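Hi team,

As requested, here is the filled-out complex form for the adenosine-5'-diphosphate run. I kept the field names the same as last time so the parser does not choke. Let me know if anything looks off before we queue the next batch.

— J.
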Amino acid sequence: MFAIPFLDLPSLGSAVGSVRLPGSKSISNRVLLLAALSQGTTLVQDLLASDDTRVMLDALRQLGCGVEEDGTQARIVGLGGCLPQSPARLFLGNAGTAMRPLTAALALLGGEYELGGIARMHERPIGDLVDALRQLGCHIDYLGQDGYPPLRIAQADGVPALSLAGPIRVRGDVSSQFLTALLMALPLVATAQEVVIEVVGELISKPYIHITLELLARFGIAVRHEHWQRFIIPAGSRYQSPGTIHVEADASSASYFIAAGAIAGVAPGVKVLGVGLDSIQGDIRFVEAARLMGAQISGGPNWLQIERGSWPLKAIDLDCNHIPDAAMTLAVMALYADGTTTLRNIASWRVKETDRIAAMATELRKLGATVEEGMDFIRVTPPSAPADWRAATIHTYDDHRVAMCFSLAAFNPAGLPVRIEDPKCVAKTFPDYFEALFSVVQTAPHTIPVICLDGPTASGKGTVAAALAQTLGYAFLDSGALYRITALAAIRAGLALEASAEAEIAALVRHLDIRFEAEQVWLNGENITTAIRTEEAGMNASRVSGLPAVRTALVALQHSFRCLPGLVADGRDMGTIIFPQAPLKIFLTASAEARAQRRYQQLIAKGDSANMSALLADLQERDARDMSRSVAPLRPAQDALLLDSTHCTAHEAVQQVLAWWQQRQPFVPSTQG
Ligand SMILES: Nc1ncnc2c1ncn2[C@@H]1O[C@H](COP(=O)(O)OP(=O)(O)O)[C@@H](O)[C@H]1O
Ligand SMILES: Nc1ccn([C@@H]2O[C@H](COP(=O)(O)OP(=O)(O)O)[C@@H](O)[C@H]2O)c(=O)n1
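And here is what came back:
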């Protein structure tokens, strides 16, 4: 996950490869609650691990369910008729799929609870559900604004007598989650008599109700419905665990990969695993919409394969009521269409994680599109020519779907990068979304940015480069480590670190199995992190690095570090030899005395003994050798910026490089946030 302030996506090329998607959020949280209400133990497989499922799992634990987790598996011991632990105060983040159904279920189970979440959750309506529950006889109070969480369910003495004889009426035109909440809670009281729910107004998002009904059936509750307006929960209902249940991959998440395939998929295209054409999720019908726009899609029970068909995409005019979440992806696909696309019947966007109609309109305009918005529609006209595209900073409104769908703007024909603010907001449903995207897109290496930091030993390159990579979410190449590893491997192979063994060392290097993992370095399965960090190892590295064949043997390996979304490379010849076209090159220096002092402190801090004058002499010897060797001597690239860090802190050095990097970016600053 990219837990950084912003993520810059370089211009993306084609899309090919396969991706396994995380479990559906809607299914995950429904299944967790149904398992909690059931008799017996349920093993939930392929569960989504995300913010919203986290709050649900925590809540269930607080309520007294047995919850054991192991990655994407959870074992839930259901309450099976027992009362939940009460009183309890539940924090439900911004998870509507936890707030609404838990409110209904707890109101019908009895006890005293407070349910709240983050500020945005307290702006998301729940009044219609509370009205329906109050109509039944439940005691629920608003703790803040009327009609919105936080709430208190005040039934310390148990559930009051409920009026179940007549139909329970609930509005269906604000959020289908109210109806879902009632459908999952009312079986708890449909013991002696059947319970009927009547929807007032047109039911929106029917597909989500379809999911609810399918899952209820898996847990032993067979709900009938009449034209999606009247739902009948049979008498004698009783939740029963199905034993093991698999969560389908999220069909809404699939939309980004379907779109990537439609926009840039070259044969054999993008393969999506975990969800297929027979999915129970409504958003699978995004496939139809994408086909209308020109995508070529095939699929089976558990997979989809997408390639570009018509190009440019075809503009559409579509009622999107049946795919409210995935339709946001269509709004971004519209940027690649041959005319104006209109998405209608999307009023529910206004009460989601943010006002999504306003958010999409604002951000699409930043990219150069012309956008018209109404209460329940959005109309998008793409930039008329590549030159009309803008390098935008996309504000993401703490809305995972805004972040994910705007990543698709990076396929723009102008070759512009796209900045996504707060990329970690994708954690709501797809924590590794960007990693998954990068795994199926191909980009010409020269479009992947590299920041080079070259300079003498102890100038702070490693420290500054690692901090930059961390801040920007880029990969990090510690090229010095490769020479240190080479020297270590050569010594172990009994080779002398000199010209006589040059060919053998070079041959050896080509077959080394080197792995960098977090801060650790592995050679042929052995952790050699400490072994290569001694002063002696540095000196040995300097020796092998003077051998031309060894340097050549390490070139391809160094190039392979250039991956999306970018690279920070630290060494001696990053800017001169390895990445001569890099868009930013820094030559970091500091006086020999300052560097010796830093090394001294570094060694003392590690608990090693150190001698200042010996260190200074070593360092000067290494400088001299690195600068005077015939191949790739240490020197600034012609277009490098010099940064003398003698009198600044490492933090200041990082800030200076970041400032230079920002100056080279084409982004229009965000007006939001
Ligand atoms: N600008 C700076 N001011 C003070 N100390 C620094 C600065 N840059 C780096 N250091 C410290 O100096 C030591 C050597 O830095 P390092 O990044 O290992 O250098 P290099 O990779 O160039 O050999 C580290 O302990 C680091 O924290
Ligand atoms: N790109 C690089 C990186 C390191 N090296 C050599 O490898 C040695 C160790 O590099 P390093 O970056 O780990 O060393 P420090 O600067 O951290 O002491 C350097 O002294 C250089 O001789 C190189 O020749 N080219």
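Two things worth flagging: The longest strand covers residues 265-273. The mean pLDDT is 94.

Thanks,
J.
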